[in-house]
Design brief:
With about 230 residues, the chain is of the alpha+beta class. It contains 6 helices and 5 strands, in the order αααββαβαββα. It is about 55% helix and about 20% strand. It starts with 10 loop residues before the first helix and ends with a helix.
C-alpha cells in the first residue's frame, strides 16, 4: 500500500460526494477506503512503535534534566563545603600544632635523642609521666536543688550540676641531659623548631665540677593530647 495516495484525497471532494449522494461511485469508495485504511495503519504504527520510542526519549530527557539540576546543586554544595573548610582551616592548623597523638609522642622521644646526639649531649634520664587530665570550664548552677531527702533529714541542700568534661590531657616528660652549655642551647633551638607545641615547664641547669665545661640540665617539658587519644 502506497501511503502517498493520501495526498490525492481531497477533503472538499469527500464533502461534496456526501452532499450529492455520490457515495455510490465505486472508484471514490475504493479511494476513501484505501485512505481510511492507510490512516488506521499509520495510527497503529505510531502508537505501537513510534509513541513508545518518543516516550522513552522524553523520560531520558527528563532524567538528563534532573541529573543536570542535581549536578548544579552538588557544585553549589562543593563550593559551600570549600568555603566552610577554608573558614575552619586556621583553627585546624592551630589544633594540629598544639595536640600530639600517641605516635607523635614516640616521635618526640626519638627527636630528643637525635638532637642530643647531634649536639654532643648525653641523655641521663628521659621519662614520660602519666597524662594529667585538664577539665573544661563548667558553668555552676545559680540556685541549689532541694530534694525531699534534704527536707526530711534536714541535711544540706545538694547542688546538682554538669559533670566536668576533659578538654585535653597534659603529658609531662622529665629529662636530664649532660653536655656543654653551647650544645644544650643548640639542642633547645632544634627542639623549638618542632611543628608541634612543646612547653618547658621546669628547667634547672647546674655546672658539673667533675667535668670541666659540662652542665647537667634537669627539667620537665610538656605536650598536650586530645582526650580520645589518652582515655
Amino acid at each position: 500500500m502506497d501511503l502517498s495516495n493520501l495526498k490525492n484525497i481531497d477533503l472538499k471532494d469527500i464533502i461534496e460526494k456526501f452532499k450529492s449522494g455520490g457515495l455510490s461511485d465505486k472508484k471514490f469508495l475504493i479511494k476513501l477506503g484505501v485512505g481510511s485504511f492507510a490512516i488506521l495503519i499509520f495510527l497503529i504504527i505510531y502508537y505501537a512503535f513510534v509513541s513508545p520510542i518518543v516516550d522513552v526519549q522524553k523520560e531520558k530527557i527528563a532524567l538528563m534534566n534532573k541529573n543536570k539540576n542535581k549536578m548544579i546543586e552538588m557544585n553549589n554544595n562543593i563550593k559551600n563545603l570549600k568555603a566552610a573548610v577554608k573558614k575552619l582551616e586556621p583553627e585546624y592548623i592551630k589544633n594540629s600544632k598544639l595536640f600530639h597523638s600517641k605516635k607523635e609522642v614516640e616521635d618526640l622521644y626519638q627527636n630528643i635523642s637525635k638532637f642530643a646526639q647531634l649536639n654532643g649531649l648525653t641523655i641521663v634520664n628521659l621519662k614520660k609521666t602519666e597524662p594529667v587530665p585538664v577539665n573544661a570550664a563548667v558553668p555552676q548552677p545559680s540556685t541549689p536543688v532541694i530534694t525531699n531527702e534534704n527536707i526530711e533529714n534536714k541535711t544540706e541542700n545538694k547542688i546538682v550540676g554538669a559533670q566536668p568534661q576533659i578538654a585535653y590531657y597534659k603529658i609531662p616528660v622529665d629529662y636530664e641531659i649532660q653536655g656543654s652549655y653551647l650544645g644544650y642551647l643548640k639542642f633547645r633551638k632544634s627542639l623549638s623548631k618542632s611543628q608541634k607545641v612543646i612547653n618547658f615547664d621546669k628547667e634547672e641547669i647546674n655546672v658539673l665540677q667533675k667535668f670541666q665545661g659540662q652542665i647537667l640540665s634537669k627539667g620537665t617539658i610538656s605536650i598536650v593530647g586530645l582526650p580520645n587519644e589518652y582515655n
